[in-house]
Amino acid sequence: MDTPYHIAVLTETIGSQVSARALQKIIAGNLGQDMSWDQFKPHVHFDNSLFADGLAFMEAQHAIIARSNEASEMWSAFGKLTHAAQDFYSHSNYVDLWLEANGGFEKTKPEDINGLDEKLLADSRLVSGNFYLWRDIIYYIPLIKNFAKKHWVFPDSHEAMNLDVPQCGAQFPYSIVAAKQRTRAEYDRVMKTLSPQRAAMFRDIVGL
Question: Based on the structure, what is the number of domains in the chain?
Fold first, then answer.
């Protein structure tokens, strides 16, 4: 999922729940995974079908939030885990599987999708695009990336499967709705995990 959509998903789901300062720190943690070598770690983006590793990464961030007494550390961890959660829907075939099970585009609208369908989340057919640094770095080289994206795309690659921007296909708005649902679910989990005092610190509600 490209930067503007990560920002929009966070803003529209938890923007009214936390302070502006907290939201900006969470967004910074989220976007940081695309602005460092984390960009090339498949599991933190749910690439290469590394679903167990991606979920373990999210759990590690939840653990940081649960034990930390520093709001900035909690915000950064939440940003990281939501980046992974949001990428799951834009990098996997979850939307395709949901559409197949619910009548396709003809019988559904984006707002109908259930991004938390436990059966689909455990479906053996669930896969995500493969990203290999030695091969796919070509899609990031300014002078040749456009040519590469047009003429050198492998069917099972991240480049072929992703729903990162609207131009990727009609599944894109479905992936955004699902990402919003998962983001809110992760926020609700944090609120249930933390004590009232630490939840207030996470929300940074003083002055709201």
Answer: 1
